[in-house]
């Protein structure tokens, strides 16, 4: 009952206000900085504000496994809309999101995502999806940034779903390591289909970077299977 009242009276209005303010600031910043780097710092501030408003405390393990100055493909399991806000403030490396194409059609948010340098992916069109993956690899190499994506392809409400091979494709093509991230406890904060946001202590575990320099695109299926097993073990959902 207390969670419900707090969510309705404090958390949801607070998140709406913060999102409006920070989103507007990010759009203004994008006029003067087209690289997306300044918008990324605004996004980190926005994410921090959401965690405070929602009463979410994050325990982070393994942050020292990400050497500064490098480019990576970050992957994480996906349970909640709060997954990205949990990740954003805790990784110092500049990174961009890959998100479902449909999100880029949402008024205001879609425009902001494009201005910030996020990359749309059409999961229902293999040809367009492959094109998006190639573009992501090019962004990593040319802009020296990292990419974050959720290889399940969307939020899940049960056990870990099979991974799509986009992360492996991008990392191999760009020649950068893949860093697995396990998010634990986010389903309890805001489950799929839920409307009540519950302040909780959650955990973010960063695994060892997995090199891809010696791999070819023909290795991506095997690599994807290995990534699935790695994340499954980290969140203790081994099949």
Describe the structure concisely for a colleague.
The chain is an alpha/beta fold. The protein is 45% helix and 15% strand. It has one domain: Glycerol-3-phosphate (1)-acyltransferase.
% residues in beta strands = 5-15%
CATH class: Alpha Beta
Instruction: Give me the number of helical elements.
Output: 8
Number of strands: 7
Which fold name fills CATH's third level, the topology?
A: Glycerol-3-phosphate (1)-acyltransferase
The run of helices and strands is HHEEHEHEHEHEHEH
Question: What is the rounded Rg?
Answer: 17 Å
Contiguous low-pLDDT stretches (5 residues minimum) are none
Instruction: Briefly note the structural class of the backbone.
Output: alpha/beta
Shape, please?
A: globular
The CATH superfamily label reads: Glycerol-3-phosphate (1)-acyltransferase
What is the terminal-to-terminal distance?
A: 35 Å
Ordered list of secondary-structure elements with their pairings:
Layout: H1 2-32, H2 37-54, E1 57-61, E2 73-76, H3 83-87, E3 95-100, H4 109-115, E4 119-121, H5 126-143, E5 146-149, H6 166-174, E6 178-184, H7 186-189, E7 201-206, H8 220-234
Parallel strand pairs: 1-7, 2-5, 2-6, 3-4, 3-5
Antiparallel strand pairs: 6-7
Helix pairs in contact: 1-2, 5-6, 6-8
